[in-house]
Structure formats: C-alpha cells, structure tokens
C-alpha cells in the first residue's frame, strides 16, 4: 500500500486519467572531458603554440606542428603576445567563428567575470571545444609543480566537474611531470587576470 501511494503521488491526473511520469530527461554530466592530443611544448617559449595545438586536437586530427603554429601566432623568444592571436589561429585552422577573445582585466576578477568564465567552460566543453587560457602565476598561486617564480604561460582547459567545481588542464609546460591535472575553478579564475582566454 505504501508503494502504491508513492506511485500515485508521482503521477499526474489528466482529464480523469492517471498518467505516470515519463522517464526523466538526462541531466548534463557532472564531469565532462575532451579527448585531446597532448604535446609538451618543444621550447621554453612555445606554450602558446602547444596550448593552441592541444585545443585544435579536440576538433580535428589535421594538426599543424608547433613550429607552424608559432609562425601563425607570431610567437618569438618573448612568447605569444596576446590571447587574441590564439583566437585568430583557432578560428582560421578550424574554419569556424566559434572562438572569441575574453579579457579578464580585473584582479581579482569580478563575480560577473567568474560567472562568464564558468559558463564559457561548460558551453565550450559541451560543444567539443577546448579553451586556451593565458595566465600569470605568482609563486603564492601556482598550479601543481610550477617553479618558485612568476610564470607567464598558456595552457588548455579540456574538462570540468560541476560537483567539485574543478577544471581539467592540459599543461604543455609539463612542470614537475604534471601534464594533465585538475585545478579548482576559483584558482583558475585567479590566474587569468590581467590576461584573457579564448572561448
């Protein structure tokens, strides 16, 4: 009798007919990651080309080499100047207009900027696009394995976990052997200012 009452409670009465609820629509996955072709950056200043290549690999197997991407990005021994260059190369190489430059000038970022970043991560990963972030990591705010100095760097965001509020990073620098790792979202948001990201 208790089971019958529970069933009726979950049902709906339509025009005098008892209608049982249909199977629930599947909720979005709490954890989602992209399959990518990971490569370590081949020079100390190729993080931009390597991170861009990792992002491209989520969408295509027709991947340029890091030297070719460095030429497209205008990368020099001083690195890749601005995230907008990554946006241009991602869109050109994928034949899309998906990617946009997202600036995060406020340090610390505003709640609005953090909300936009999280929404961009979920939307992009759900649609099969990896993000590229340009970060500034001071010694007191390092991802795992970073040397004890301020690091100016590009890496790729390839997944998210909504329950743990973390993101999966493919880090071309391979600091301390950490190639692909999970990072708290709040830490990611604190690393991007005053730079930006491609999403």
Descriptive key words:
Cathepsin B, Chain A; 199 residues; alpha+beta; seven-stranded antiparallel β-sheet; two-stranded antiparallel ribbon
Written account of the structure:
By secondary structure, this protein is α+β, with helices and mostly antiparallel strands. The chain has a single domain, classed as Phytochelatin synthase, N-terminal domain (Cathepsin B, Chain A, Alpha-Beta Complex). The chain is 32% helix and 22% strand. It is built from 6 helices and 9 strands. The longest helix has 16 residues. The protein is globular, with a radius of gyration of 21 Å. The N terminus is likely disordered.
Question: Gist?
Answer:
This protein has 199 residues and is an alpha+beta fold. The chain is built from 6 helices and 9 strands; from the N terminus they run αβββαααβαββββαβ.
Unreliable sequence segments: 1-25
Query: How many domain modules?
Result: 1
- Helix-strand string: HEEEHHHEHEEEEHE
At the first level of CATH, the class is Alpha Beta
CATH architecture: Alpha-Beta Complex
State which percent range the strand residues make up.
15-25%
Q: Helix tally?
A: 6
Query: What does the main sheet amount to?
Result: 7 strands, antiparallel
**How confident is the prediction overall: mean pLDDT?**
89
Using the alpha-carbon principal axes, give the shape. Answer: globular
Radius of gyration: 21 Å
| N- to C-terminal distance | 54 Å
Helix content: 25-40%
Determine the CATH superfamily: Phytochelatin synthase, N-terminal domain
- Find the count of extended strands (DSSP E, 2+ residues): 9
- Pairing-aware structural class of the strands and helices? alpha+beta
- Give me the CATH fold name: Cathepsin B, Chain A
InterPro entries: Papain-like_cys_pep_sf, Peptidase_C39-like
Signal peptide: 1-26
Pfam family, one: Peptidase_C39_2
Keywords: Signal
């Amino acid at each position: 009798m208790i089971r019958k009452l529970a069933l009726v409670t979950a049902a709906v009465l339509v025009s005098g007919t008892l209608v049982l609820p249909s199977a629930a629509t599947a909720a979005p996955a709490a954890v989602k990651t992209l399959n990518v072709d990971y490569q370590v950056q081949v020079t100390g200043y190729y993080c931009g080309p390597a991170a861009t290549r990792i992002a491209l690999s989520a969408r295509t197997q027709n991947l340029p080499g890091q030297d070719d991407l460095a030429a497209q990005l205008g990368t020099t021994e001083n690195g890749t100047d601005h995230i907008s260059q990554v946006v241009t190369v991602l869109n050109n190489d994928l034949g899309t207009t998906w990617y946009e430059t997202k600036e995060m000038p406020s340090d610390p970022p505003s709640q609005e900027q953090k909300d936009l970043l999280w929404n961009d991560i979920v939307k992009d990963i759900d649609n099969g696009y990896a993000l590229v972030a340009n970060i500034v990591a001071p010694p007191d705010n390092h991802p795992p394995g970073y040397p004890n100095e301020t690091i100016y760097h590009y890496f790729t965001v390839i997944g998210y976990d909504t329950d743990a509020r973390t993101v999966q990073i493919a880090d071309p620098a391979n600091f301390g052997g950490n190639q692909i790792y999970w990072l708290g979202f709040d830490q990611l948001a604190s690393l991007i200012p005053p730079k930006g990201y491609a999403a």
